[in-house]
Amino acid sequence: MPFEVFDKRMTPLVKAPSVTIQKRGVISLNKAAHGLIGNAETVELLYDRDRQVMALRTVDESSPHAYAVRNGSKRGSGQAIVSATAFTAHYGIDTTATRRWKPFMEDGMLCVDLTTEGTVITGNRTKTTTPTDAVEPIEAPTDDASTDVPVDDPDHP
């Protein structure tokens, strides 16, 4: 039998959900993780102090605690970005290094157990310190993604 040329476009890419907290406190979700919360356009950020678990919950943009979920990729289908600098600072969440976790769902919320170390990401499009399935490159936040601005902030464009 002759050799066949493998066409990677014929095989769907299965990517594990991942949540990354970047050095400046920006939270990024890969496409699979964003899909778990229905590709939400706005979320609330929650934290369980006892368990050290953070969560993102889909909310209507009119919610007083809503944060915009921005597209982190200029190509359109990449990571979703949530500006969470004040959130990470308030709860003392370590942002000295960019780290990635495998999230889990609980009560309709996308959750991350921060008692686990997470995978340290060493830079854009580079290898991680520990191998993971479905690693996506970290993309720099765009516009004002490095500041915490609720979607209903009248002083913010």
Describe the 3D structure:
It contains two helices and eleven strands; from the N terminus they run ββαβββββαββββ. With 157 residues, the protein is mainly beta. The strands form two sheets. A six-stranded antiparallel beta sheet has the order 6-7-2-1-8-11. Strands 5-3-4-10-9 form a five-stranded antiparallel beta sheet, with no helix packed on it. The longest helix is centred in the first third of the chain and has 6 residues, at 31-36. It is globular, with a radius of gyration of 17 Å. The model is unreliable at 126-137, 139-147 and 153-157 (pLDDT under 50).
Distance between the termini: 62 Å
| Topology, number of strands | 11
Helix content: under 10%
Number of helices: 2
Query: Approximately what portion of the residues adopt beta-strand conformation?
Result: 25-35%
List the helices and strands and how they pair.
Blueprint: E1 19-21, E2 26-29, H1 31-36, E3 42-48, E4 53-58, E5 67-68, E6 70-71, E7 80-83, H2 85-90, E8 98-101, E9 104-106, E10 109-113, E11 119-121
Antiparallel strand pairs: 1-2, 1-8, 2-7, 3-4, 3-5, 4-10, 6-7, 8-11, 9-10
Structural features:
157 residues, mainly beta, six-stranded antiparallel β-sheet, five-stranded antiparallel β-sheet, 8% helix, disordered C terminus
In short:
By secondary structure, the chain is mostly beta strands.
